[in-house]
Amino acid sequence: MNEFIMQAISSPWLYAVMFAVAVIDGFFPPIPSETVLVAAAAVAVSTGSTNLVLLCAIAAIGAAIGDNIAFTIGRSIGIRRFSWMRRPRVAASFDWASRTLSRSGAGLIIGARYIPVGRVAVNMSAGALRYPRRRFIPLSVVAGAMWAAYSACIGLVAGNLVKDNPLLGAVIGIVLALVIGFVIDRVAAARRRRREAARMSAELDAARDSTRVSADAS
């Protein structure tokens, strides 16, 4: 994977590669769109060979297209049809996304863009739940633009740390992106667990109150 990233950022087809991986990553998380953008931004600091604004714009457009593909897949086939969708972690992500979309759809769609598996689960769930496409499209554009700017900033920080060594800057940027992504994923998972525990507690309290009222009435 690291070899693929390094080849991508040194390729004369970088902009096309960036667009392709950003689109595919929207519905197939193993494709590392963040790390390609981070590494390219880190190298750009040292070499100046890449138009970073253009690269970010291309990444943002590709990300929005990929997210809308995931949305369309969810609307077409749902979130339970294939066996990989029923794996415990994936199924839990879909269940969480489905519950949360009804309460805070806009925030979830934008926030999930920073979590590789999470964004696919959220966007497919949005499609399966018939979330309005006219609302989803602008949200996906905003999310893609914010995500591209965030990824490029990580690369810029890494590149400025070692301006004289573009390759090392790219490696540092990739490591930073992976660490930050891991932290975001863990924080999101912890918040999901807390919300689930609170929901179950509320349902249990409601059931107890209902039982108490029934007993008093009798």
Tell me the series of helices and strands, N- to C-terminal.
HHHHHHHH
Task: Please identify the structural class as seen in this structure.
Answer: mainly alpha
Helix content: over 70%
Radius of gyration: 20 Å
Q: With helices defined by DSSP (H or I, 4 residues minimum), what is the helix count?
A: 8
- Biggest pleated-sheet summary: none
Subunit arrangement of the protein: single chain
Overall pLDDT, averaged? Answer: 76
Number of strand elements: 0
Question: What shape does the CA trace take?
Answer: elongated
In whole angstroms, the N-to-C terminal distance is 67 Å
- Poorly predicted runs of 5 or more residues: none
Quote the beta fraction: under 5%
Structure description:
With 218 residues, the protein is mainly α. 83% of the residues lie in helices and 0% in strands. α3 (33-47) packs antiparallel against α4, α3 (33-47) packs across α7 and α4 crosses α6.
Entry keywords:
elongated, 218 residues, mainly alpha
Write the layout of secondary structure elements.
Elements: H1 2-9, H2 14-25, H3 33-47, H4 52-77, H5 88-112, H6 116-128, H7 133-161, H8 166-217
Helix pairs in contact: 1-3, 2-3, 2-4, 3-4, 3-7, 3-8, 4-6, 4-7, 5-6, 5-7, 7-8
